[in-house]
Batch of 3 targets.
Target 1
Amino acid sequence: MYLILLSIFIPILMGLYLLVRKEYASRGRLLATTCAGLVLTGALAVASFTAAYGSSFTLFYLTKSLPIAFAVDEMSVLFSCLTVIVLLCAGLFSFEYMKHETKEKRYYGFYLIVFGVLNALCFAGNLVTFYLFFEMLTLTSMPLVLHNGSHEAIMASLKYLFFSMCGAYMALFGVFVVSHNSAVLTFSTGGILHAAAGSPSAGLLLAAAFAMLVGFGVKAGMFPLHAWLPTAHPVAPAPASAVLSAVIVKAGILAVVRTVYYIFGADFLRGTWVQTAWLILTLITVFMGSMLAYREPVLKKRLAYSTVSQLSYILFGLAVMGAEAVTGSLLHVLAHGLIKTALFLCAGAIIFTTGRTRVDELRGIGKEMPFTMWCYTIVSLGLIGIPPTGGFVSKWHLAIGSLQSAIPVFRWLGPVILLVSALLTAGYLLPLTIQGFLPGADYDYEHLKKREPSPLMTIPIAVLTILSVLIGLFPAQLTDWLTRLAARIL
Amino acid sequence: MILLVILIPFIAAALSVWLPFRNRKSWEIFLESAVTLNSILVWYLLLHHSGNTFLLAHFTGNLSVSFRVDGPGMVFSGLVSALWPLATLYAFEYMTKEEHEKIFFLFYTMTYGVTLGIALAANLLTMYFFYELLTLVTVPLVMHTLTREAILASRKYLYYSLGGAAFAFIGLIMIIVYGRSTDFVLGGVLDLAKIGDRTNVLRFIYVLAFMGFGVKAAVCPFNSWLPQAGVAPTPVTALLHAVAVVKSGAFAIIRLTYYSFGTDFLRGTWAQTFVMLVTMFTIVYGCSRAVKETHLKRRLAYSTISNLSYILFGATLMTPLGMTAALLHLVFHAVMKIASFFCAGAIIHQTDRYYVHELDGMGYKMPCVFGVFTVSALALMGVPGLAGFISKWNLASAALESGSTVACFGIVCLLISALLTAIYMLTVVVRAFFPGRDFDYGTLSGVKDPNWMMLVPLFIFAFFIVLFGLYSQPLADFLYAVAIGL
């Protein structure tokens, strides 16, 4: 119990302390404090899902019907693992990257707070607690988006804020309806609304489910409220973009998982109009995200569009509501999280060393920064879904799961769109590799100089790359675990 | 005792003008202690009330002026008496920059008594009397600066309020004619035998009276006086135009609906649907205007319009839960809105800046004021853990519980309004704390937080916003007890 609370409140308090105290005398002290905070939080998070696994407790009651409760289950473990890995890697990367930005103290302050809030989301035990921290996540991650203070960044952060708020309030409508139909809002596998199925309020509940899917889907960049994501993610400093694109959006995924499988229950939604509408939205998003990424010239923006598309792979799998597909989705949560962090950190390393942001400016980059570009290429292959990297395994399960299901039309349309999108993914990720390593005969090799970034940047990228390859090479145990998990929540 | 708490503010106000005070300090101390003493008396009265009716004057038949402490009266008078000493403290500091302080405080303190009169009135006639009086004593406050704009605003305020009271008067007459008495009785006093087949006429009269009292509660289309009246000094806008005056309107509507006409007579009829739609429209309309408005105090005034209709929406659900939610939002909104208005006032007092776009970067110069403003903004948006969420949650569950389709759409209106609230409040916060990298802090040199007389009320309000957000069950239970007949 204390571990969970500590893993949430220590980073939040440390972040607040960083925000209100005056500037540090030296940069080193700031980094030391932040580093200590990150490592401590990471350790506490890991400790809480190992030591407190399976436990649950109520902290206090806002009102009689609104308990603030925390619990640790398998889903918490999965998302918490991802959070810890990504936040630590991106945090390490920041130490070098943020040299060329100002107001570092504010950045690290909010970074730590976001870490705490993400932990809270992973360990939230009921819908109200989840909603509370979901709103807090929006509010505390917004300063990361507007960090550089340009007009563009501030406008992007407002767009992020208002889209997220819009989504949160749509979801809140659903929360109201659910709470009216159920005495408790605790997450439990298989849902809590068995009694309401078939009752007169079922129609309203379905509308509520749809509102929650679209509302929470805003964070996960689902069409039609995806437009904030490609605006907001690229303007943040690269490590913050990585965190936004890899874990903060996953909070949207976690919200959807909790809503569908822990509140409504798959049986409640299977075969209803909600499932059909949801499938349509995810497939539109998958295709559209890839198309937009394909024609986007700025690297970070391209990656952000790619996030839009990839997240809807996950949502598609969840919408199919079959064991195989959900396994694929959960695997893709992990794979996409690692890969997208690595990609954004590579983009950050490139910006940091060369100052170039557009893909067409990056001819010959592979000759200048071979290590970074090798990592970029390997994880790109993973995102496209070429074996033996992580993305392949998850997409395989997604496609198989979709084909196994009994949903008319979508069972084959889904895999087709996923494949088309994979092709597009290759189309938007690999040109950088090709141009980077094969700049062409007229490339000026004379002035070529090696400028690999410092180890603070390359180590996190390498770690993420290795991890993403490892899940691809040895997926058996992980897949087994996730299959069991999927079977239990269905 | 009841009469005493209503009269003390009048006496204190009169003395504050006539007594020869040696200096400003002793005058301040006199007024502040009189107001505080009165508040203590009010709370003593509330905690030890006997439920008896105090008859002051008997005219004829069932017309009398009498007072009584009952549930809603306790809530409203308790709220007002808790806020008044703090607002007075704040006003001392604020008014140092304005003229004619003594006249200002004369009317300001008298308003306290009048508002308590409304809260503690035992029948419709008494309430109506104090309701009219409230208009008259607050007009000079709106007019205070004596600029052309202020005079126009106060004239508009006067016409709107008096016009509204005239419609309310029709309701009063109907209650006298068709009611068993004019006393406030939960469940209403209408005598169905007397009404016969004229039920729809009476429902029409209810709608008229609703709109009449609704003028003070700024329901659409009678809301335009409120933003204009923002020309008054901030203590007036904050306390009167966010709490005392406008909530008197909402309070009167609760009295009218639950204690005079009775919910059984109205529930499920076209009259309920009509007033509910009016409040829903006002909720969205107020917020949209607030988003468009760039003058900070006027923006907050539009936000008040929208939030008052939250209260009225709860009231028009005509169920005990609806009334609980309405009273809960009545209390919470008072605290949240007075906090944000006081912040706006502190900004005006310290820097003479009125418009949202002038607030860039001020968050670092006035951290306390903008900290409290942020808390109140988040609370108004309904972020969980703060007061606004609890009242919105109660409103929404009451709406769902009532089971009507219109009420379900009401929830959608609430949520749209919450989004718009996020837009108009957070743009201010973001501007203040994140002005952008090209911002020149030199333009803000010399800007700093105000002194303790302004900060103490702000911190107290912020504390209560958080407290109510985290722990409000006893209050909610008490209000529910009120709604089922305390």
Target 2
Amino acid sequence: MVEPGLIRAAQSGDRDALITLLREIETHVYRTAYYILNNEQDAMDAAQEALIRIYTKIGSYEEKAQFKTWIQRIVTNICIDKFRRSKPTVSIDEHEMVFREKQNVEDEVLSAYAVQDIRNAIDKLPEHHRAVVVLRYLQDFSYNEIADSLDLPLNTVKSYLFRARQQLQTLLHDYQKGGVRG
Amino acid sequence: MTCQEVIEYMNRQLDDDLGEHEYEILMKHTRHCPDCAAMFERLKKLSEELGNLPHVMPKYSLVDAILPQLEQVVPFRQPEAASVEMSPAAAPAPQQARRAKERHQLRFRAITGIIAASVAAGLFLVSYNAGLFPSSNSFGDDNKSNSVAAADVQSDTFAAAKQFSNDGNKAEVGTESIEQDGSNETMRSAGNDDHVTTEEDLGISGMESGNSAGGSDGPASGDNSGSVPGEAPSIAGPNQGGGESFSDPNEGLVPAPLQAVSSDGSYIAKAAGYVIHVYNAGDNSDVYTSKRRNGKISTLLWSDDSKQLTYEIQLESGGMERYVIDMATLTESKAAH
């Protein structure tokens, strides 16, 4: 995503390189913030804060980590810490059974979920589950890259992602059935 | 295999994490389990839609929006990342014109500048160290403290250069080059200079430190020191005390006693409090003690022929007085600025 040479130049004090680097990553940073926070203005604020933090901390980045996981760690931390809202999220119960009722599979498969429904469903997930989903689908990260970004064990990443899918699937199914819309 | 275990396989399949054998197990199960088949369909659909979420872009450039803020913030740089950029910042253009000047004056000015630069670099090291640790600890939490610390360092450096130089222009040159570099590399070279400065020929070590600490007058000093190293006026800056004063940042803020060896090596002048003692370098006997002055002695400078010692007093009012001791008559007089 970002050339190693550009990163090194930025780290050695080349301010222009650092600004160029920030321009290259700003959309990625914003996208993560947007889907974690589900709010355009908060996403702008969080992304700007993340870019400033990347600007000031560029020297502390070490090449043993992937640069893209390093920046996603910064932006997810800001989203989770700074923009933590006391809003209700669904409880993710490990033993929740998924087959709650017989459904008409045909109907459901044919109709697509509305993007807004998906965003609202993501917004209902606990923050770390939300972050895992965002990194998996908006940044195309692997399990390991997600684990590095969020500083979580690999198995935790998998279980968060799997449970988040279950939960999203249930929520979206409810929306589609004309139930509670976000 | 339970349905719950199969759901994990479904998820891993969505992430391309299933081996061929595992995939067969999954498919075999879903063929005989309508619930799991339905679930798998829904999860696949969900995953596909999550993958198709709009790749939103910010309404305006976030970087442009924060540029003014970034101006206020000093990026934290890797300590070892600054190795290459000593030379570009060195040798500012105005220096070139001065080379045409009379050789004697050139050498005098060059050395003064180098000493000033290395003194400033040394003090910069000290003050930077003193400022760096608190600011780097609070890094990222408080951006303002960084820029404040940086501002302190700059003013310290400037004050230091002014204080220990008797050539205002040169002092500024030295300060400039250090501020431009503004890097730990500058510090490191200044640190190395300490070792060099403890060598016998302070004139030559001064040259070397000048070259490595920004090289304000690199070319000029190279000309002169190369041909007549022995004649180079020996001017000891306050960092002549060597490594100790730099090992402890707090201690380093108080300059080591100012002293200077005359060009021919026959006299040693030392500042002690508000007076200057001149000793015979051979037997360490007292030659002359200056009058007591009402300010801090900031510079000791021998003339090339070792017949005159010029010193500067920094008055508490902020002014500066310059005096010259004539070694032939052992008298001193106020010098014109």
Target 3
Amino acid sequence: MKTVSNNQVWRVWLVVLGTCLVGGRSFATPANRAALEKHYGRFLTPSLARCTTCHLPSAQKFPESLDEFPHNSFGDRLRKLGEELAAAGKKKDLQTRLALVAQEDADGDGVPNETELLLGHNPGDAKDTPSRSELAAAATRHTEFAAYLKSYRWQPFDPVVRPPVPGIAPTVAPFAPRNPIDSFLAAEWSARGLKPRPEASKEVLLRRVSIDLIGLNPTPAEQRAFLDDPSPDAYERLVDRLLDDPRHGERWARHWMDVWRYSDWAGWADGGQVRDSKPHIWRWRDWIVESLNANKPYDRLVTEMLAADELAPEDPDALRATGFLVRNYKMLSREQWLEDTVKHTSQAFLGLTVGCAKCHDHVVDPISQREYYALRAVFEPHNVRTDRLPGQLDTVKDGLVRAYDATNTPTFVLVRGDERHPLTNAIIPPGVPAALGGKLDVKEVTLPWLAASPDAREFVIHDTISASEAALTAARAALTREHTKTNSTPAQRDEARLSLDLTEKKHAALLAVVEADRSVHPPKQNEDRTPAATNAVRLQRAVAVAEARLKQYQAQTALATAATNTVVSAKQKLMAADQQLADAEKILTKPLDAAFTPRPAESFPATSSGRRLALAKWLVRPENPLTARVAVNHIWLRHFGRGLVPTAADFGRNGRPPTHPQLLDWLAAELMKPGDGVLGLGSGVSGISAPLSQDARSQTPDPKPWNLKHLHRLIVTSAAYRMASTPDAADLAIDPDNDFLWRMNSRRLEAEAVRDNLLYAAGALDLERGGPDIDQKLALSSFRRSIYLRHAAEKQAEFLQIFDGPSVTECYERRPSVMPQQALALGNSELAARQARALATKLTAESGGNDIRFIELAFQRILARGPTEAERQSCAEFFTPAAVSTELANKAFARAAQNLILVLFNHNDFVTVR
Amino acid sequence: MNPPQPHSSGCPGVTRRAFLADTGMGFTGLALGAMLFRDGARADTPAWQPPTGAPHFAPRAKAVIWIFLCGGVSHVESFDVKPELTKYAGKSIAETPYAGVLATEGKDVIGANPAHGNRKVILPLQTGYRHYGECGLVVGDWFRHVGECADDLAVVRSLWTIHNDHGAQLTWQTGRHPRELEHPTLGAWMAYGLGTLNENLPEYVVLGAPTGDCCGGTFTYGAAYLGPEHGGVRLNTDPKNPLPFIHPADATLTADQQVANLSLLGRLNRLAGIDYPDDANLRARIKSYELAFQMQSSVPETLQLEREPQHIRSLYGLDQDATKSFGEHCLVARRLVERGVRFVQVFHGGGGGGAWDAHSDIKANHTSLAQQVDQPIAGLLKDLKQRGLLDDTLVVFGTEFGRSPGAEGTGRDHHPQAFSAWLAGGGVKGGVQYGRTDELGFHAADNRRYVTDIHATVLRQLGLDSRRLEVPGRKRLEIDHGAVIREILA
């Protein structure tokens, strides 16, 4: 098998080289060509980004080896130089060699190699020479290229290397950097002549960071406390408090649920048609909330979501994490299920559109179709199941839905992605795209016995016995009832007695089976299991007899009362019952053996392929170029309103390059290994000219790797994050989109935050955490946070969707809109009306009916700030219509109060974070 | 006749004026913008002013109905029929007399995707075709009803685009590659340049399910840097649920109070916006409240399709299951245009890559989808014509790219190198065929046209010069402006 595939690879290479040389485009880029493209970047014309830059066409019509594509003079020189360098024990990578031969002239046409390359001419072809007019532009081109070589290169497929923190240029002084984030941003400001905005007011800052970290407005008391706190570290302490607040987990869980595609189940419960995702998947949501609150490291989050069943097979808390996989369940198509799993796992963690390679090699990114199927092979064995939870034997009602490896189905390449056309001659082993480096280290996992036989867990046994005891109690009560009832017939009493007898025997048999099971499992050696087993057999035989007796008695009763047209069938039933009893009694006479019927229990494979665990480990190894970069970008996006890479779900060549590649790389390094850089801020290397503020120096790095809260803290305590979002005319002219973050972006609240804050302002929000999904139809009447509302295909709260709530299929980034429908939702919905009335009543009491006081309180509650003088006046006029009587005045006040609250719920500032 | 308006006061004209006076509605955007310019924010371009809403030259059309079929309609079997495909079915292109069509010299085509394009073994036509009208336009049988309108159509057969996947859906709306994310759509330029013709409905309305997130999503009807107030507003066409939350849940909230609330809200929003004079979202939000208030009555009225006589309902196919849904979209589009909506963007087959993406069994795919849209679109053209509305309403029929002459099994692949669209009404010549593809429909051969040439032509008919709409600091490329296809103008 191995030789075959090697041959295939070999042949593919020849084809690739062949297409290169005849001028076609190829997609599996040979390494040297990739290195050429990487070195020259955008300075390489398409005509030179080809094999022909170094090779000549083959003389053979059907070339059979690479040697048949000879080098031209340029390629030959590079090859020889490589040999020389190797012999001298020096670095011989292509980029080094390209730099060394830049000023040479391989083809002897009088123009140096690099000049030819930069002007779009082949340095190995003497006939292909720049014209005189072209040469006139060479100097400029060289200068630009030199600047390009010196600039920071965005290499998303190379491992992260922490860049040095730049110094602060005097042009942006007196801006004081608080941490390295500011230094990186300042470097871009000074390069572009941008002036950073000053720090936002405390009011604005408090609301911004509160919404950002816990999703809720600061309360009036919190506003007072912060505004009145003059200490220099008041903001830092506020940030600490918010990060420790359990509502932080809920806020950021919703963000990650976008990226990880949370969905409740869809389909029809009564028809037993669970089509997408699975019931009880809310436990995954709770796991996300709890994990974020506990600051579980990001690498651990990824690993548990992909492979908790292999990593911690007996930890029900961790197993919830595999909801990430369960979410892709598709009743109607295993094909679609696996396709979604591959596509979205890659997109969420790697920011790569690997899904494109299902039908053909990726058009722009280095992912071959074969590699797509290697990734699919990682997931091929997995399936989903629902394990029992303590206290509930019925998994329809509740259970732990989780992933596990169920099969060893082989993976094949599907021709054009069509499941009807698998290439069955080669089984594709699990693997990862070569361009990202590293390998999958797959080790089969032997599961603990209880993970494979979950019904053997003590609580299941306990719950089963409890259920049996309950049945016993019920049967006894039934018999007592028959005896105490005045109109009870002897037949009813007899039947109840027989029923009780059966239940008692069943219970006894169950206890014996449990005992016998224990002696069998987990398999032990040198233990005589016969006594328990034979006892179980004896009691199970007794159950069979009792069951038959009851049935016989019921059949006799039925015959006695049968109508003429049912007599025949009643007789037949009695005969069958007689026979059943005779059989059961006959078995009693046989000698006892040990072959008892075990408790009905599901059992699953005792091993797991280990593929998903291997994938998780590959993803979170520090050399993986994308995992940390993509995670950091998602976090940045949600703090600043836009990612450093604007296409958060595509870090490939169809995406857009980052505005601040150094900063993104630095943050990625900081996420993986906190601390290296924060203290390094004052180092001589970076040449800091502005003094570090006190609070920056006092920040002690948290040494825990992949530390999300550390990253949040770093970002929100930066000076950049604290800037005002007000415009500056000069900056706007230079950078109208604020690409270079000379100000904070104003943002609209996400749908969930609009609803949550509406309830919260009115004091109605129920802060209970966790639990089953709430029917989305209750969105307007439930007081729970929006994260707990059911969200699935055809089950989405309309109010949330109007505010651009997440799409169920994918939502790597929210795209907030401004639509008239939003005005209607906030102006007309029962949610807004009811909360306006409630808050108006509450604040009327608090203000003692004083309109000015009422206005103050309403602004604080809803907009988290006091009114300006002009605002106060405008609102006061709202209360003025004079009243004839006190009663009418009170009514008018109540109406005006309620309307004012409604107006403030609709205020642009309510849905906007400044 | 206006229907009863349960939530407006007895004297809508008066409350409306009061409302405008209180909030500065209708010109708030300009007022806020002007504050910024007074402050010298755009000192580098002192002469620049936002558009006044007046056309740059005499318009030929007032409104546009922009029909977009998602997924890629086969050009070779619809409006650019290629009988040679049937003749050479099963042969590779190289074996036909037209082997030369593959040459890309001088053609600005995107890099081919070896797996996703350039299929070379010819698939025969999967439907019949016939000649229509005095102009003798050849149309594939999937579009027989539209064929009957041949003498009103100007078919452009020489289009090409820049993306070989469904991101081209976004390209059709903005002219840009999806990698470049959000740019103003044609509808947004129109709304920005001309403003509104009515006070009760958005100037830019979106019907049907738009493109999936893969392929532009909300960007396909967005306004990007022009500000969200110029973006498309999606409407349902279900008269039972015209707009969510259309009536106040609080029955005690009177219309007068609603107006007073809106007036206070407008004032407060302006006050709070003083520090953020460049905030396009704030401008859009202020406008959205004005519109929402009006739409509470105008939208249900617009959607009262049962008021249309039976023969009109039948004309659009409302009485048949296959055509009902798209027929409703088309009929609502006409009613919106009648009520002063400038730009109605009607999507068909949206979501994911798009329904028309017939990689396999194109015969079944296109037969079924064309059945859904053919009669409604023809009904729309005929209805507009009989009402005299076609004179100043420009109807455009488009898709993101064509489908390959070569076979992909029983289907056809993406084909960005050539595709067709047509325009009708609004001062466009009828019975015209512009541009030509080669005999196999592989490349646009004569008069090659990029998608923004269609944009330029539409803007021209509306009296707009896209160069005069440029916003300082927002560089537009030459290709964004496109070139008017003068040959098809009456």
